[in-house]
Write a structure and sequence with these properties.
Helices cover 30% and strands 25% of the residues. The protein has 63 residues and is α+β, with helices and mostly antiparallel strands. It holds the Pfam family Ribosomal_L30.
Amino acid sequence: MNNPPQNLEITLKRSLIGVPLKVKKVALAIGLSKPNQTVTRVDHPTIQGMIFKIQHLIEVKTV
């Protein structure tokens, strides 16, 4: 019936040095500030949009 939401494990694979300010703000909003830092977030359309914007800097796994 009502499935529990999935969690996403998001890892910052590249540094934020030299990226546009908009991209940096999106990464910081997700909770990523250092390379190889990993955060867990609930799979939600808002988070999916953020992931789409910084997909070239991160790696995403479902947990």
